[in-house]
Every structure is written in C-alpha cells, then in structure tokens.
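Structure, all two chains, one model.
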Amino acid sequence: MTQVSMTVNGKSVSGDVEGRTLLSSFLREHLSLTGTHVGCDTAQCGACVVHVNGEAVKSCNMLALEADGSDVGTIEGQANEDGSLNVIQQAFQDHHGLQCGFCTPGMVMSTAALLKDNPRPTEAEIRKYLEGNLCRCTGYHNIVKSIMAASGQDASSIAAE
Amino acid sequence: MYNFEFEKPSTIADAVAALGVEDAQALGGGQTLIPTLKQRLAAPSSLVSLSGIAELQGVCIEDDGSVAIGGATTHATVAHEAASSYPALAALAGQIGDPAVRNRGTIGGSIANNDPAACYPAGALGSGATIVTDKRQIGADDFFQGMFTTALEEGEIITSVRFPVPLAASYQKFLQPASRFALVGVYLARFSDGVRVAVTGASEDGVFRWSEAEQALTKEFRPDALMDLQINPMNMIGDLHGSKAYRAHLVGVMTKRAVEATL
C-alpha cells in the first residue's frame, strides 16, 4: 500500500491505496464520493468524468497514484456554496437534461470543462465535445438543450432530429 | 486487474533504471494500457509512469524547422500547441478518441503501442518522422514493424518524436464510431521532393505506406492520378465493421480526399 494525497473539491484528502487502485475507486470507495459513476469501466461511457487539475478525464482509466498531488473536482463539488444547483445543474433540471440520471454526473463535468474553454459553444460543438459521454436513455437532445441554456443561449431553436 | 508496484520518476535516467526491473512496463497516459490490464491481458510487475518527467512534455520547433514533440505530451496539448507549426498533425491529434481521452493519452504511448488502427502511427510514418529514444534515433520507416510491433527494445523510452514539416498535409479519418479509432485513416504529406502516403486501420500488418499512390502523386499531384490504382484486399483487415474489400476501397477514397484537402 502506498499513501496518496490530493485535493478533492477543495479539501485535502489522503489514503492508502494499491498500485492498481483506480481514481474512480479511490473517490467512491475510500472517500465515499459515489456521485462519480462507473458505467462501463472501459473508458467509453464517460459517466466517471472528473476534473484533474481542471481537465476532464475518465477516472476509471486513471490510477489513483497518478493523481497524487493533484487538484481533483467531482460532481459533489459542483453545487453553489449555499447548496443550490449551479448554472449547469439548474439548466439540466429546467430542460429535462436527464432521464434515468446515471450519465448525468459525467455530462455535467464534461459540460463544465467545455464551457471553461468555450463559453458559448454552438450546437455542433456541444455534440462534438460530448462524443465520449454516452446516455443510454438516448436523451442527447435535451442534454444539448440544457448546455445551450447553461451557456446563456437560446435553447428553443434546437430542432429534434 | 492484477496488482503491481507503481513508480513515478522525475528524470529519464530514473525511469530507465526503474524499467530495468524484470517485467516492468512504461505507462504513458494509460488510455490503452489500463483497459488492457483490466482485461488481464498483461501482468507487469511494476508500472513506471512517464507523466512526471518535465523534459518529456511539450511541443517545440527545432533549428531546422522540424516540430519536436515530447514523448509524454498529451493529444490535447499537441492539438493546441502544434496548431500553427504543423496544422495537419494537430488536427490528427484533435480527432483521437474523445476530449477526456485526449487529456490523458500521449504521443509516445500511441506510437509505442502501434495499434493497427491508431492515428499517430499514420501521422509519424506519413511525415517521415524520427522517433527519438533514450538510446538512439529511429526513422519511422524502420520503427513500425507490424501490428503492435515496433523497433523499441525492452525498457526503451520514446523521449520525443521529430516531425519534418511538409509543404502541405492532411489526415483523413473514416471513424469507427464505437471505438473512435480509424476504420481507415490516410495521412498524406507533400514535400518538395515527393509525396508520402501512410495508411492506418486497414492492414493486418499495421500502418503502411501506399507506394503506388506516392509515385503517382509525386508525378502528378491531383486526385485523378489515383484513378487506376487499387489496393490488394488480400492483406486488409476484415471484421464485422468492414470487409477486406470495403477497407481496400476506403483507402482509395480517403487518399483522394486527402489530396483534395491539400490542393
């Protein structure tokens, strides 16, 4: 076992892990931050997306020890300080951007990473950016709408495909 | 996945020493290696992470104008930092996997793995790049030796990849949407002394140069120059995503598109 230390949602944390412990396992099983979902465990579905030093990564495909010393952000750190939903989360609620909700943590974390670099993405840019986030309910249309709204754009103009 | 020791050296010398241990394995971004370990297709005694070595990071322009990319540089960084110095290569990097995968996956990892459908082997072979390791320099023509096989020796580390910048280049990727690898990808580079065409995703022998197309395009650089050329489907990959004949056909189509994109 090796000690790993990192900042998660602004709090310093540490724990003893094996070499093979994944970042997703460390977050879920050691820190009980189960908002990060493990959907496929093969780095395809994106439900486990978190931020490592501000960049979106699939936490099921990164070793916990690789994140030693990093600043990690998860879905649990997304809400406003008073506990209310942040702009992205609120937009997902307002525009029915979730059906079963399983993919939602990854969708929200990917959206946050997208809007950091591109505050007003086009519909095409949003769809392109979400290539690594799968929604098995196939609820993409309203997810895209939610992201348009979260970036302060008119979401009503998106036609159903 | 079986357990292993984890090491994260901060210098190339320490990484080489750590890789000297029996069954030690270098770890780039892990975007292929970690899924491989999960399937228990490999059982290294230790993983030596290359992500903590500063000199393996980043994109720089050499005195001779070539673009040198550190072995542990992520696809996202190449897509961003090489955009002005070598746009076609930056565009290739920006099409690998998805955004989260590009934030972790590295050029050295991709080239060392030499997946027969990966994008970077086509970019390196098509550009006539030089693969620089801790021991030597290897030309791309000698480096890629068939599916998942390269000239790398045990424990040898790719420190950088040096790309001569062509007059014009284009990567045309026909996406296999489930894996996000190339069903067929063609990297075409036009230099003052000739044209290089490298094909990924198509052959059972991994990335290869399509020499007939190179000769035809060097003689006459226009899409019609490819009209009478055909790839023999015999050695093509045939699977549920596309037959041998389909992939052979796609090689021609994607090469033509690459010519059109550089005109």
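Helices of chain A lie at 23-30, 87-94, 104-117, 123-129, 140-150.
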